[in-house]
Amino acid sequence: MTNFASPLRALTQWTVLVPVLAVVVLALTWGRHLAGPAVILVSVLLAGAVLAAVHHAEVVAHRVGEPFGSLVLAVAVTVIEVGLIVTLMATGGAKAATLARDTVFAAVMITCNGILGLSLLIAALRRRVAEFHAEGSGGALATVATLSTLSLVLPKFTTSEPGPEFSPFQLTFAAIASLLLYGVFVLTQTVRHRDYFLPVTDALPASTTDTESHAVPPSTRAASFSLLLLFVALVAVVGDAKTVSPTIEQVVARLGLPVSAVGVVIALLVLLPETIAAVRAARRDRVQTSINLAIGSAIASIGLTIPAIAIASIWLGGPLHLGLGPAQISLLALTFVVGTLTVVPGRATLLQGGVHLVVFSAFLVLAVSP
């Protein structure tokens, strides 16, 4: 964690300088056509701002403790994701009709297969068996399955509108249902059954030295400073993403990749820091924290993104395709079947981690070669 005892030292750290510099560059490049070197600079600052945002979310999270920490990270990442989606939809025209669907679907596959599989693999390699709470993890997975079906599967089969999209009434219902279900999940995670989302302490060896977990939490002043910098970093991420979005689309087109690859790129970029945090938790034998980060991010991704794009679609206009294709629905169903078999026992081995990573690999292959 950042040491805020010395204000001068704090102001010279990269987690402070990068978001500020990213905002300055954003102000200088807003609305301009960027040449190659400028695009590279903005892209580097964009990636740095994402990492800085999650770092400051971790500082705030360490102040409030678990499972609130995982919730802070999930919400921060989702805010970044929503900002990227809305800005790209605003500039993408008709070809952005499927961007929200592709990004949300990619986020679910990355979190519930990529991050979860990698975390279980690392934990199982360290202690042979990864242990976690089946009650909390199972409930979280059930929430993801319900949100995904309501928002990404049902539009494929409804008949009120042509194509894989909801009618305004159906979209309103999906948005309200997503918000309510997300609210119930947060209440369960942080109040009603908080113990279901805490690390399994009995699984931790006595010799474990978790310096971050046992470090003195930052002061209220330090956490407030990080909260301010988190906001600055999010502004930088959203603005810089809008600036480089034409370049992302051009690169995807030149490589001959489908338009859906843009959503995959966005999700991979946004969830990279989340992946790092989950892996770090797994290496410290805190598998439940890794699962909270992975599945919690999936829940936040759908539960907050769908309402946001429902509101945005009012002033953006144009179609909003949410329904997945047959191949994507098959992968989604496989993800939840495998995920259920993984979390129900409350224990996972190397095999479960490998199975999730194979499903994730299949998703990546189909994303670039449908």
Automatic annotation (TrEMBL):
Q: Which residues cross the membrane?
A: 12-31, 37-56, 68-92, 104-125, 137-157, 169-188, 222-239, 251-272, 293-316, 322-343, 350-369
Membrane topology designation: Multi-pass membrane protein
Q: Does the keyword DNA repair apply?
A: no
Q: Where in the cell is it found?
A: Membrane
- State the signal peptide span: none
Identify the keywords attached in UniProt to this record, alphabetized: Membrane, Transmembrane, Transmembrane helix
Keyword Iron (UniProt): no
Q: Which domain of life is it from?
A: Bacteria
Q: Which residues form the Sodium/calcium exchanger membrane region domain?
A: 39-190, 226-367
Name of the protein = Ionic transporter y4hA
